[in-house]
Amino acid sequence: MTSADTQVAETQVAETVATQAAAKRTLQGVVTSCAGDKSATIMIERRIKHPIYGKFIKRSTKIHLHDEANECNKGDTILIEECRPMSKTKSWKLVKIVEKAVEL
User: Fold this and answer.
1) Fewer CB within 10 A of the end CB, N or C, for the chain?
2) pLDDT of 56-84, one tens digit each?
3) pTM for this one?
4) Are the C-beta atoms of 39 and 67 separated by less than 8 Å?
5) How far is CA 79 from CA 2, 46, 64, in A?
C-alpha cells in the first residue's frame, strides 16, 4: 500500500467518525403547551420495567423547544432535534409535525 492510499483511507475514516459525531439526537413527543411565541413544550413518555416486580411503569419528560413558524398546536405529535441552547431551557428545535391533533 502506498502512502497516498494510506492517506485516502485515513481521510475516509476521519470523515466517517465526524459524521457519526455530528448526528443529532431526535425524539418524538406530544405538544402539551404552545402558549409562548416561537416556543412549545412537549411530553415524551417512555415505559420502563420495574426492577423488582417486573411491571411496566410510565415515565415522562417535559422538554421546551423552539418552533420558528409557530406551526405546532396542543395535542400534535412532533419530531424534535437537539440544537444549540437558545435560552436557559430551550435546547431543541422542531423538525416536523408527524400527526396533527384532531380538532373538535
Assistant:
1) C
2) 999 999 999 999 999 999 999 999 999 99
3) 0.72
4) yes
5) 47, 15, 13
